[in-house]
Design brief:
Elements: E1 2-3, E2 6-7, H1 10-14, E3 22-28, H2 30-36, H3 42-54, E4 64-67, H4 74-87, E5 93-96, H5 101-104, H6 108-120, E6 125-131, H7 140-150, E7 155-158, H8 163-171
Parallel strand pairs: 3-4, 3-6, 4-5, 6-7
Antiparallel strand pairs: 1-2
Helix pairs in contact: 3-4, 6-7
Protein backbone atom coordinates (compact mmCIF):
# COMPACT_ATOMS: atom_id res chain seq x y z
CA UNK A 1 0.00 0.00 0.00
CA UNK A 2 1.20 3.51 -0.75
CA UNK A 3 0.44 6.53 1.41
CA UNK A 4 0.48 9.78 -0.58
CA UNK A 5 2.91 8.29 -3.09
CA UNK A 6 5.43 7.12 -0.50
CA UNK A 7 6.22 3.49 0.31
CA UNK A 8 3.85 2.21 2.98
CA UNK A 9 4.89 1.90 6.56
CA UNK A 10 4.17 -1.40 8.37
CA UNK A 11 2.36 0.53 11.14
CA UNK A 12 -0.22 1.77 8.62
CA UNK A 13 -1.50 -1.78 8.32
CA UNK A 14 -1.02 -2.81 11.97
CA UNK A 15 -2.68 0.11 13.76
CA UNK A 16 -6.37 -0.34 14.40
CA UNK A 17 -8.42 2.78 15.10
CA UNK A 18 -12.17 3.02 14.73
CA UNK A 19 -14.31 6.00 13.82
CA UNK A 20 -15.76 6.26 17.34
CA UNK A 21 -12.30 6.86 18.83
CA UNK A 22 -10.04 9.88 19.32
CA UNK A 23 -6.41 10.02 18.20
CA UNK A 24 -3.74 12.58 18.99
CA UNK A 25 -0.44 12.88 17.15
CA UNK A 26 2.43 14.39 19.14
CA UNK A 27 5.29 15.61 16.97
CA UNK A 28 7.93 18.29 16.97
CA UNK A 29 11.36 19.59 16.26
CA UNK A 30 14.56 18.03 17.54
CA UNK A 31 15.85 21.61 17.90
CA UNK A 32 13.33 22.22 20.70
CA UNK A 33 14.03 18.79 22.19
CA UNK A 34 17.77 19.54 22.31
CA UNK A 35 17.15 22.91 23.93
CA UNK A 36 14.57 21.90 26.57
CA UNK A 37 14.80 18.17 27.28
CA UNK A 38 17.81 18.23 29.62
CA UNK A 39 16.25 20.99 31.77
CA UNK A 40 13.42 18.79 33.08
CA UNK A 41 12.76 15.45 34.70
CA UNK A 42 10.70 12.87 32.86
CA UNK A 43 7.78 13.62 35.21
CA UNK A 44 7.95 17.32 34.38
CA UNK A 45 8.15 16.55 30.65
CA UNK A 46 5.10 14.27 30.88
CA UNK A 47 3.24 17.03 32.71
CA UNK A 48 4.03 19.88 30.31
CA UNK A 49 3.28 17.58 27.36
CA UNK A 50 -0.04 16.71 29.00
CA UNK A 51 -0.79 20.40 29.42
CA UNK A 52 -0.01 21.01 25.76
CA UNK A 53 -2.17 18.06 24.67
CA UNK A 54 -5.02 19.28 26.88
CA UNK A 55 -5.05 22.53 24.86
CA UNK A 56 -6.24 20.40 21.92
CA UNK A 57 -8.49 17.80 23.53
CA UNK A 58 -9.62 16.58 26.95
CA UNK A 59 -6.97 14.01 27.84
CA UNK A 60 -9.62 11.66 29.25
CA UNK A 61 -11.11 11.42 25.72
CA UNK A 62 -7.90 10.20 24.04
CA UNK A 63 -7.95 6.61 22.84
CA UNK A 64 -4.71 6.63 20.80
CA UNK A 65 -1.51 8.66 21.00
CA UNK A 66 0.60 8.50 17.85
CA UNK A 67 4.22 9.63 17.67
CA UNK A 68 7.28 9.14 15.48
CA UNK A 69 9.20 6.94 17.94
CA UNK A 70 12.35 9.09 17.89
CA UNK A 71 13.78 9.12 21.41
CA UNK A 72 15.75 12.30 20.65
CA UNK A 73 12.76 14.47 19.77
CA UNK A 74 9.38 15.54 21.15
CA UNK A 75 8.20 12.06 20.13
CA UNK A 76 9.77 10.97 23.42
CA UNK A 77 7.64 13.59 25.19
CA UNK A 78 4.53 11.98 23.72
CA UNK A 79 5.74 8.60 24.96
CA UNK A 80 6.34 9.96 28.48
CA UNK A 81 2.88 11.53 28.51
CA UNK A 82 1.29 8.21 27.44
CA UNK A 83 3.16 6.38 30.23
CA UNK A 84 2.08 8.96 32.83
CA UNK A 85 -1.52 8.79 31.62
CA UNK A 86 -1.47 5.01 32.00
CA UNK A 87 -0.14 5.34 35.56
CA UNK A 88 -3.19 7.38 36.56
CA UNK A 89 -5.59 4.97 34.91
CA UNK A 90 -6.20 6.43 31.47
CA UNK A 91 -6.39 3.81 28.75
CA UNK A 92 -4.39 5.38 25.93
CA UNK A 93 -3.05 3.11 23.21
CA UNK A 94 0.40 4.34 22.22
CA UNK A 95 1.21 3.94 18.52
CA UNK A 96 4.90 4.56 17.75
CA UNK A 97 5.65 5.03 14.04
CA UNK A 98 9.43 4.99 13.53
CA UNK A 99 10.95 6.45 10.39
CA UNK A 100 12.46 3.85 8.09
CA UNK A 101 15.71 5.74 7.40
CA UNK A 102 17.66 2.67 6.19
CA UNK A 103 14.99 1.74 3.66
CA UNK A 104 13.81 5.17 2.49
CA UNK A 105 16.68 7.57 3.13
CA UNK A 106 15.56 11.22 3.16
CA UNK A 107 12.01 10.21 2.25
CA UNK A 108 11.68 8.40 5.62
CA UNK A 109 10.61 11.52 7.55
CA UNK A 110 7.84 12.58 5.16
CA UNK A 111 6.74 8.94 4.85
CA UNK A 112 6.48 8.62 8.64
CA UNK A 113 4.54 11.89 8.90
CA UNK A 114 2.14 10.80 6.18
CA UNK A 115 1.70 7.43 7.88
CA UNK A 116 0.93 9.02 11.25
CA UNK A 117 -1.72 11.23 9.64
CA UNK A 118 -3.09 8.25 7.69
CA UNK A 119 -3.44 6.20 10.90
CA UNK A 120 -5.12 9.08 12.76
CA UNK A 121 -7.47 9.67 9.83
CA UNK A 122 -9.38 6.48 10.75
CA UNK A 123 -10.42 8.03 14.08
CA UNK A 124 -13.65 9.96 14.43
CA UNK A 125 -11.63 12.81 15.91
CA UNK A 126 -7.94 13.39 15.27
CA UNK A 127 -5.64 16.16 16.50
CA UNK A 128 -2.03 17.21 16.06
CA UNK A 129 -0.02 18.75 18.88
CA UNK A 130 3.16 20.12 17.30
CA UNK A 131 6.07 21.38 19.39
CA UNK A 132 7.26 23.95 16.93
CA UNK A 133 8.90 27.32 16.53
CA UNK A 134 8.74 29.28 13.32
CA UNK A 135 12.33 30.37 14.02
CA UNK A 136 13.87 26.97 13.29
CA UNK A 137 15.22 25.27 10.22
CA UNK A 138 13.15 22.09 10.71
CA UNK A 139 11.30 20.81 7.68
CA UNK A 140 9.79 17.77 9.42
CA UNK A 141 7.41 19.58 11.75
CA UNK A 142 6.00 21.86 9.03
CA UNK A 143 5.51 18.75 6.89
CA UNK A 144 3.58 17.06 9.73
CA UNK A 145 1.48 20.20 10.20
CA UNK A 146 0.74 20.23 6.47
CA UNK A 147 -0.33 16.57 6.57
CA UNK A 148 -2.68 17.25 9.49
CA UNK A 149 -4.19 20.38 7.92
CA UNK A 150 -4.67 18.56 4.60
CA UNK A 151 -6.78 15.97 6.44
CA UNK A 152 -8.71 18.61 8.40
CA UNK A 153 -7.21 17.86 11.82
CA UNK A 154 -7.12 20.70 14.33
CA UNK A 155 -3.47 21.66 14.89
CA UNK A 156 -2.16 23.00 18.19
CA UNK A 157 1.27 24.59 17.72
CA UNK A 158 3.25 24.77 20.95
CA UNK A 159 6.04 27.33 20.52
CA UNK A 160 8.44 26.69 23.40
CA UNK A 161 10.57 29.58 22.19
CA UNK A 162 7.75 31.91 23.30
CA UNK A 163 8.28 32.92 26.97
CA UNK A 164 4.52 33.22 27.59
CA UNK A 165 3.91 29.68 26.34
CA UNK A 166 6.77 28.35 28.48
CA UNK A 167 5.41 30.15 31.54
CA UNK A 168 1.97 28.70 30.92
CA UNK A 169 3.19 25.13 30.47
CA UNK A 170 6.00 25.03 33.02
CA UNK A 171 4.81 27.11 35.97
CA UNK A 172 1.41 25.60 36.78
CA UNK A 173 1.13 23.22 39.70
CA UNK A 174 1.05 19.51 38.92
CA UNK A 175 -2.37 18.54 37.72
CA UNK A 176 -4.45 15.47 37.19
CA UNK A 177 -4.11 14.50 33.53
CA UNK A 178 -7.57 12.94 33.59
CA UNK A 179 -9.31 16.25 34.26
CA UNK A 180 -7.15 18.60 32.19
Amino acid sequence: MSVMGVTSHPMADEASISEDETAVIVAGSRVLYDRFNSQFTDEQIATFTGRAVSRAVNTADIDHLIHGDNHNSPDRWGHLFAEAAEEIGLDINEIPVPAMWDKLGKAAGPSRNSTMAHIADDAGEAYLVAFYSGNQASTGTPDMIGNALHRGFPVTKVDLENPEVRADLFSEKWFDLATA
